[in-house]
Write a structure and sequence with these properties.
It is built from one helix and 16 strands. The protein is mainly beta.
């Protein structure tokens, strides 16, 4: 299926020169003068080699037909990260390279979008927001205004996040999985 280059997103699978690549990062550049371009960082599915491509934003790119559905994360071990299809109870193991930056967020029972090609996991997409607990944070410095200052904090899953001054250790917060940014205090 052909799509325009500017519509590519992280996790999409692209077919180029007879090989499949998973998109790691896609950025659109709109210079004041000249042609807008899309720069895409990709990893080869078969060989794992990373590459960067640049296309005009309106250029047609072949997007591979992959199976994308919701899977349940089970556990991780020396073999990799194990997922189960909730409809058929089939299980697959994804390598650490496929999971990548998503590894700290995975908790048993979590539902994730897993893309598979010929039965092999090739890309994972986390829920956009997840709730985590703040385990440690710096004390508030007197005189800081709440509107502009954030302080560093560590979460129970080992991810660093910047939080507002009123958030203390033990507080549950919602963070954006795409960029580890604070969204709001958890409602639970």
């Amino acid at each position: 299926m052909k799509v325009i280059a500017s519509s590519l997103r992280k996790g999409n699978v692209v077919e180029m020169n007879g090989k499949l690549y998973v998109v790691l990062k896609a950025e659109n550049f709109h210079p004041g003068k000249g042609t807008p371009t899309t720069s895409v960082d990709m990893r080869g599915i078969v060989d794992g080699v990373k590459t960067t491509e640049r296309w005009k934003t309106t250029e047609q790119v072949e997007r591979a037909n992959v199976d994308e559905r919701t899977w349940d994360f089970l556990y991780d071990d020396a073999e990799g990260f194990h997922f189960m299809n909730p409809e058929t109870y089939d299980q697959v193991a994804a390598t650490p390279e496929v999971v990548g930056d998503a590894a700290p967020y995975l908790e048993p029972g979590m539902k994730v979008m897993l893309q598979t090609y010929e039965g092999r996991p090739i890309s994972i997409e986390l829920p956009q927001k997840i709730a985590v607990e703040i385990t440690e944070t710096e004390p508030v410095v007197k005189g800081q205004t709440a509107s502009s200052s954030y302080k560093p904090a560590m979460t129970n899953i080992g991810v660093r996040v910047m939080v507002p001054p009123h958030i203390d250790a033990g507080t549950r917060v919602v963070i954006n999985t795409a960029d580890n940014s604070y969204v709001e205090r958890a409602k639970d």
